[in-house]
Amino acid sequence: MTALKIHQLWKHVQLTNNWLECDTSTMDDLSPSWYERREVLQNNSKEYQEFITELKREHAIETGIVERMYDLEKGITETFIKKGFVASYISHNDTNVSVPKLLAYLSDHLNAIDFVFDVVKENKRILMDL
To answer: How much is the pTM?
Structure first.
């Protein structure tokens, strides 16, 4: 049996000193509130987990919209982000595809996002068969 090769998927970005010349004034104004929010999230793992869950749902939804697989009305998009992908939340004109197809797409996208998170956190490895 052939030994598995492990490939590092990413490398740290090496910044030059040119970044010091960037205008960061807008970010500088926002950073205190970001640091405050980060502290709240770090101290409340339940709230942090809810934030990550909603972020993943939003990315799952947007993936299909960007790929033109479906359209969703704003209201159902917001409901799905907050409450999850549940068929009974969908009204007649909320989407242009069948409900089972929509839920299958969303489930696939969410699984892909979870996979990416696991790879980045090094909880899963990507094996390359050469």
So the answer is: 0.70
